[in-house]
Amino acid sequence: MALLAALSYVLIGLEVLGVGDLAASERPAGIIFAAAGGYVLGGLLILLRRRWLWVVGAVINAMVISMFLMGYLDRPAVLFSPGGLVTKVVQVVLECALLYLIVTGAHRARAVS
Length: 113
Known about the structure:
- The structure is a single chain.
- By secondary structure, this protein is mainly alpha-helical.
- Helix content is 76%, strand content 0%.
- It has six helices and no strands.
- It has helices at residues 2-13, 29-46, 51-72, 76-79, 82-104, 106-112.
- The protein is elongated, with a radius of gyration of 15 Å.
- The chain starts with a helix and ends with a helix.
């Protein structure tokens, strides 16, 4: 899911996925590709099977979702754009997966280590 989130941001950066009525100045390529890189790194860190990394990832991911919703709640063209919907659906599924790992997978991660 993290890698799909990264891919979604890359597609936004390449203007394959639209983001509603956002002007180019409101979506700088550096931030878009930094977000993609962050999700790639986060996805790789999930594989380390460390509960604290899952918790950090879940907190950061929840902040990203919250900031998007707070920032664009009054702009439905952005909220319901292909880029907005795809990234947020993937991020919500990622959040659920991280919470599942945190709650149920912690004992397995310790047992393997």
